[in-house]
Amino acid sequence: MQKTNFCYVDHTHFNCIFPNGNVGKCDNEKPEDAKGVLTESGDILWKTEYRFIQYHQLSSGSECVECKYLPFCMGPCPRRREEMYVQHKHIVCQHKDKEEAMEKVIVDYCEKNSDFYNI
Ligand code: SF4
């Protein structure tokens, strides 16, 4: 199932093949930490699973479910969700001061795109 995120890592069939033969889900993780390995026959053998696949913005207990900024923010990326699962066992807000942070993001976006929208 594709998740509600802008990151390609959330696509079901995305995998990252590292030069050391390991296979991960996020190309920003360290190759030595990747949880899969490419076999001689070309299959991927997963040693452990990535938890972010089950824990996403709309999962039970996620702080994003009730958040009015979800359509704009889209919640944390897969890598952050993986870290959140380890630390909190659910998705927590990635913005420390949600109201202030999101207001700044929206204003920045509008300022950068004012010519395009003719505002
Ligand atoms: S602002 Fe926080 S709680 Fe709201 S969608 Fe973004 S990460 Fe989730």
What does this structure look like?
The protein has 119 residues and is of the alpha+beta class. The protein has one domain. 29% of the residues lie in helices and 9% in strands. It has four helices and four strands, in the order ββββαααα. It has helices at residues 70-73, 78-88, 98-112, 114-117, and strands at residues 16-17, 22-24, 36-38, 44-46. A four-stranded antiparallel β-sheet has the order 1-2-3-4, with no helix packed on it. A hairpin with a 5-residue loop joins strand 3 (36-38) and strand 4 (44-46). The chain is globular, with a radius of gyration of 17 Å. 20% of the residues are buried. The protein binds iron/sulfur cluster (SF4). Iron/sulfur cluster binds at residues 63-64, 67, 69-70, 73, 75-76, 93-95, 98, 102.
Keywords:
119 residues; alpha+beta; four-stranded antiparallel sheet; 29% helix; globular
Mean pLDDT: 89
Order of helices and strands: EEEEHHHH
Major sheet description: 4 strands, antiparallel
How far apart are the first and last residues' alpha carbons, in Å?
38 Å
Query: Tally the helices: what do you get?
Result: 4
Low-confidence stretches: none
Radius of gyration: 17 Å
Number of domains: 1
Strand segment tally: 4
Query: What strand order characterises the main sheet?
Result: 1-2-3-4
Name the shape in a single word: globular
Give the ligands present: iron/sulfur cluster
Helix content: 25-40%
